[in-house]
């Protein structure tokens, strides 16, 4: 199920990593996943019951390159 958040909210949300980069809906592997993914560090943050969980402890790390 795709994340359904207001565009206005998506425009102001940012990753809690030091780069504070914008987030995009879904993951690289699944654009329909209930996650928001950082455009800088690649971490994916779950969206539970329509609420983004932007905690680094809850983030899914990107797959290691190589």
From TrEMBL:
Range of residues in the leader sequence: none
Protein family according to the UniProt entry: Belongs to the UPF0434 family.
Name under which the protein is recorded: UPF0434 protein SAMN05216553_104184
